[in-house]
């Protein structure tokens, strides 16, 4: 797992080949909002706050990509839910799919 404080200068970048990727993270009461960029374009923002601790939660499932090289960037937004006590974000693991939509690899999963 990778943990970040809420500073927006932090970034995790991963380059993969496949038709999709899933991002999994832990949600809890200290987490903020993470921005996800795919191939240089902002894909979305995701709130990792939860009042109760939840491990290995699927945050986003990106599908329908061409089976070529792609780059995903995960960056703390510096924003948090009003109920969160912090701005931190994390990456539990990533799953990469090939053209047959089967899992071909993972990053960070034991």
Task: Offer a quick outline of the entry.
This protein has 110 residues and is mainly β. It has strands at 2-4, 12-18, 20-27, 33-38, 41-47, 54-62, 68-76, 89-91, 93-97, 103-107.
Textual characterization of the structure:
It is globular and about 40 Å long. A hairpin with a 5-residue loop joins strand 9 and strand 10. Mean pLDDT is 88; it is low at 101-105. Strands 2-7-4-5 form a four-stranded antiparallel β-sheet, with no helix packed on it. It has a four-stranded antiparallel β-sheet with strand order 6-3-9-10, with no helix packed on it. It has a two-stranded antiparallel ribbon with strand order 1-8. It is built from no helices and ten strands. It is mainly β. It has strands at 2-4, 12-18, 20-27, 33-38, 41-47, 54-62, 68-76, 89-91, 93-97, 103-107. The protein starts with a strand and ends with a strand.
The secondary structure category is mainly beta
Strand content: over 45%
> Number of helical segments?
0
**How would you write the strand order of the largest sheet?**
2-7-4-5
Instruction: Give the helices and strands as they follow along the chain.
Output: EEEEEEEEEE
Average residue-wise pLDDT: 88
Which ranges are low-confidence, i.e. pLDDT below 50, for 5 or more consecutive residues?
101-105
| Terminal-residue CA separation | 9 Å
Total beta strand runs: 10
Largest sheet: 4 strands, antiparallel
Q: Could you estimate the helical fraction of the residues in percent?
A: under 10%
Which overall shape is indicated by the principal axes computed on the Cα atoms? globular
Radius of gyration equals 14 Å
């Amino acid at each position: 797992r990778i943990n970040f404080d809420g500073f927006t200068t932090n970034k995790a970048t991963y380059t993969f080949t496949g038709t999709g990727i899933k991002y999994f993270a832990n949600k809890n009461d200290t987490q903020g909002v993470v921005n996800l960029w795919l191939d240089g374009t902002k894909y979305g923002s995701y709130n990792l706050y939860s009042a109760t601790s939840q491990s290995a939660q699927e945050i986003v499932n990106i599908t329908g990509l061409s089976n070529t090289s792609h780059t995903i960037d995960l960056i703390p937004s510096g924003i948090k839910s009003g109920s969160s006590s912090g701005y931190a974000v994390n990456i539990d693991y990533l799953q990469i799919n090939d053209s047959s939509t089967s899992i071909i690899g993972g990053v960070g999963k034991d």
